[in-house]
Sequence to fold (226 residues):
Amino acid sequence: MADQPQPRTLLHSAKSLDEIVVIGGGGHAKVVISILRKLNRHRILGYTDLEDQGAVLGVPYLGSDRALAVKAVGPKKLNAVLAVGQVGLGKPRHELWARLHSLALSFPLIVSPDAIVNEEVSGGEGAVVMDGAVINSGATIGRGGIVNTNSTIEHDVLLEDWVHVAPGATISGHVTVGRFSMIGAGATVIEGIKIAAGCMVGAGATVVHDLTEPGVYVGSPARRIK
Ligand SMILES: CC(C)(COP(=O)(O)OP(=O)(O)OC[C@H]1O[C@@H](n2cnc3c(N)ncnc32)[C@H](O)[C@@H]1OP(=O)(O)O)[C@@H](O)C(=O)NCCC(=O)NCCS
Fold:
């Protein structure tokens, strides 16, 4: 008897989405959730936070770190995205990551489909690249970094780990930004500058000289105030 045609199922077209947990339920998390939805690679299980913020864009609260510890037990690692913002000289993202490091979590690099990322760009685990960001060839984004909305990371820039480039900031070619530094909204760093670890560059500042000491810098040209 001739083979019967197999009934067509949706199995081949069904996309199985990896599960992901959003860590943090504040403003930055909202933007990250929207990006995850546009990417459509993950099924968002919920978010964790120290406190219940209610549903965030429809994403339910799972609990605090303990809820993650219950879910992230392996052997397959659970995806998580660090969606806690980092403004100023604190290190909340790193502290959170370090606290959760013993869990079976994986922190994939999340890049908005509405960002432009050119060739030979590398990005570290737990980094997020938001809508409208442009990252040009040869740039490196370190672990846990935030390349925020409409910022520009020019060619051959090195953002060390846990750097936040705020919305609309421009980092020109061959700049190095040290660990835990933040470049404020709309700030400009001219080409070739080296910014030490632990520097906060204020919103709208223009950095035209190397910043060799950690501290807070504002104005054009940027000067240290703290
Ligand atoms: C630079 C910054 C961190 C300073 O914050 P702060 O330590 O709380 O400092 P203060 O607000 O006490 O301001 C200290 C002085 O610097 C001035 N100043 C602060 N930020 C400034 C800025 N961006 N540009 C110019 N001057 C600034 C203040 O007017 C004040 O001057 P005064 O002493 O003459 O009154 C903050 O103002 C800033 O720019 N943050 C960036 C915010 C941002 O980019 N957010 C993006 C979120 S995604």
The chain has two domains: 18-106, 110-219. The mean pLDDT is 93.
